[in-house]
Write a structure and sequence with these properties.
globular; Glutaredoxin; alpha+beta; FAD/NAD(P)-binding domain; five-stranded antiparallel beta sheet; Alpha-Beta Plaits; 29% helix; 458 residues
Length: 458
């Protein structure tokens, strides 16, 4: 294996996204992956939330995923659906798409960026503090000799389900195909061992719930997951940086794991690139932990809460019904839906305008060269100074080779999920990850400091 400036351990969604971000910044990056190739046994994660689709849109590749997935309202809290169709985003929905397809599409993008992937290389040895498992689940892709009870079942043990791997979403409802592999999830009676589960383990778990294993056979994959929740105390240890599952693990309820990992990568990628390219000091990497550790900590907390609400007990059922009723009210629904979809993330960049530290909306701008979407300006993962005031009113000549300066007009309202309408700014400095690093009030007060903090000295 050749030497590279950055080596990404793991070719899953987080690793692929990080490698792509670094390649866009012309960093010499390579991926090492324990698998021999990109093939992924089992479907694992089932889709993308709204903010992750936005992130992919910022890089100009969202359509690759949208063309293969099933657009639907996927946000939910402890099984209570949370509709985001009225949210101010170009993507007020989620996307049903199995992880093996997500990885394949990302790998195609990374290949276009000429990032080498070295197979059959494995990194071991990380452990995190957190909460030990109290329950475990088997998930598998199998063939069945008999027709099962399709859909979700709840009982004293927990939640279980049968569904075809191939499905369509019609009028918001999941419709399974008539044939093909079956995806089964079953809660185990006791927390399972850390060894790889077997077909016999799956058969016994099915019999404990349904009284039959439906003639289960020919498994493509069988895996075990738990409600264990762990997070690294530090995302950086000298030259080692953690992202995705290497930084945080939790129960998959709510579908936030893959999405959080991909967004970790987009936060880290441009910062690491600037340090490697000697544009910014090493200390910029400390902001990665400062910004992303609280995001994952919040995910761990809400997954712990959701797992607790999914337990089968009369008292828990009463609590779950109460929470479900609360979430039919507009304000709680908006708040929780923004959290679950990743649209409410707010990095603490200090006092100031409400936009500071929040995602930049994908506005339709009017520029001297015609109409342009904000996300189009982010395709190359470069920072953008968007001037909505007097043309040429902001001089950033010392950073002209690093920051794209655009004069534009926008006449509409500024509205963000969970935050609502905010006062229109005179200018914004947008980081490559799509978050706002500075908000102008008609002057350049604080702009040079923000440029220096995030994009290096002049």
């Amino acid at each position: 294996m050749a030497e590279h400036a950055v080596v990404v351990a793991g070719g899953g969604p987080t690793g692929l996204m990080l490698a792509g971000e670094l390649a866009l910044a012309r960093v010499d990056v390579a991926i090492v992956e324990r698998r021999a190739g990109q093939e992924l046994l089992g479907s694992r994660a089932g889709g993308l939330h709204s903010r992750t689709i936005e992130v992919l849109d910022q890089r100009g590749i969202a359509d690759r995923f949208l063309s293969e997935g099933q657009v639907a309202q996927v946000a939910a809290f402890a099984g209570t659906p949370l509709d985001i169709s009225d949210f101010p985003t170009r993507h007020p929905y989620g996307l049903g798409l199995w992880q093996n397809h997500i990885e394949r599409i990302l790998a195609g993008w990374v290949d276009e960026l000429e990032v080498p992937i070295y197979g059959e290389r494995e990194v071991t040895g990380f452990a995190h503090p957190g909460w030990d498992p109290t329950t475990s689940f088997l998930i598998a892709e199998v063939e069945l000799a008999e027709e099962p009870e399709w859909g979700i079942r709840r009982d004293a043990l927990g939640v279980h389900s049968f569904g075809r791997l191939e499905y369509e979403i019609r009028d918001g409802e999941v419709v399974y195909m008539d044939r093909g592999p079956v995806r089964v999830m079953v809660t185990e009676e006791h927390v399972g061992p850390t060894t790889e589960p077997t077909l016999r383990d799956l058969s016994e778990a099915l019999i404990a719930v349904w009284g039959t294993d439906y003639g289960v056979h020919s498994p493509t994959s069988i895996s075990r997951f738990t409600d264990m929740a762990r997070q690294a105390t530090a995302y950086r240890e000298r030259r080692v940086l953690l992202a995705g599952d290497a930084a945080h693990v939790h129960n998959p309820v709510g579908g936030q794991g893959l999405n959080t990992g991909v967004q970790d990568a987009v936060n880290l990628g441009w910062k690491l690139a600037q340090v490697v390219n000697q544009t910014s000091p090493d200390s910029l990497l400390d902001t990665y932990h400062a910004e992303r550790h609280p995001v994952a900590a919040r995910v761990l907390r809400n997954t712990l809460a959701q797992v607790a609400l999914l337990r089968q007990d009369d008292r828990i059922q009463a609590l779950r019904d109460t929470i479900a009723e609360l979430l039919t009210m507009d304000e709680p629904r908006r708040r929780f839906a923004a959290m679950m979809s990743g649209l409410d993330i707010h990095y603490d960049l200090g006092e100031g305008h409400p936009l500071l530290g929040r995602r930049m909306p994908d506005l339709d701008l009017v520029t001297p060269n015609g109409q342009l979407r904000v996300f189009t300006l982010l395709h190359d993962a470069r920072p953008v100074l968007l001037n909505l005031g007097d043309p040429g009113g902001l001089d950033i000549t010392p950073w002209a080779d690093r920051v794209l300066a655009i004069d534009a007009n926008y006449a509409g309202d500024w509205e963000l999920p969970a935050l609502g309408q905010v006062a229109a700014p005179a200018a914004v400095l947008i980081r490559p990850d799509g978050y706002i690093a500075w908000v102008g009030d008609g002057t350049d007060t604080g702009l040079r400091d923000a440029l220096t903090t995030w994009f290096g000295s002049p």
